[in-house]
Amino acid sequence: FWLIQFSKDMNMDNNCMEDGEGETSTGLNISEGESNKKSSQAMKGNEKIDLVHLRIRKQLIPVIGMEFETEDLAFKFYNAYAYNIGFSIRRSSCHKFKSGQLRDMLFVCFTEGKREIDKRVSNVKYHRAETRCGCLARMKISCHLNDKYRVIEFVFEHNHVTTSPSKTHLFRSHRKITLAQIAEVDMADSSGIAPKAALEFL
Fold this sequence. Notes:
Elements: H1 2-55, E1 67-68, H2 71-85, E2 89-96, E3 102-109, E4 138-143, E5 149-155, H3 179-190, H4 195-200
């Protein structure tokens, strides 16, 4: 009797272990599926960038060794490239000479890095959407002996899908209004019209 009961208990334990292992395996498959999905999206995004590179002029694509007279011209060039591809850029880090002149500057995709943990997070009811995913797309320039800024690093691959050209103008680095539009907004503000309502008429 005891041998029979012991055998039944062992069978039940084996079944439980197999069930547990099945659940663990299922969990791993889900996480791997999500990871594969993100990788697939990134691959599709980079394939899209390759197609855009074929459509636009080579002079509009950053190349290592390309030179600019000023840092601002380099920023505008990379920002124009980002507009064609479908992402926004920002200035990340820089170094200066002792004289105060800019030595190098790093321009990055707006999704570069990770959001820092906010100590007030427990008091926030509605969190802003996460916009940074550690993208490594970038362009770095460095000042040389001729006082021109040369591209010394360029990474075009993104780990996320870029947007369509019809929506690129909504990104921060591409939002621009003319002097005439600024004057109209000022006139509307003096007339008591809210800035948001005034911008809708532009």
